[in-house]
From TrEMBL:
Highest classification ranks of the organism: Bacteria, Bacillati, Actinomycetota, Actinomycetes, Kitasatosporales
Name of the protein in its database record: Uncharacterized protein
Organism annotation: Streptomyces humidus
Keywords assigned by UniProt, alphabetized: Membrane, Transmembrane, Transmembrane helix
Transmembrane parts of this sequence: 12-37, 43-62
Amino acid sequence: MPGMTSVTARPRWWFALRGFAFFAVGGGLGALVYATVSHRPGGVPWAWLLFGALVCATLSALSPRRRR
């Protein structure tokens, strides 16, 4: 099947979704913690967080899988 890996048998969109979720959740929590600890006014740069999550999802979908 196209888009399937031989080792895990999961489609590439699964890896893209996982990469997006990890980047968005980790980056969002990290930005919120930094804003809380530093006591600086201003919001979290949500547009850059979304852009980074999309880039991470694209790279994780297009990168070759590891072989064990």
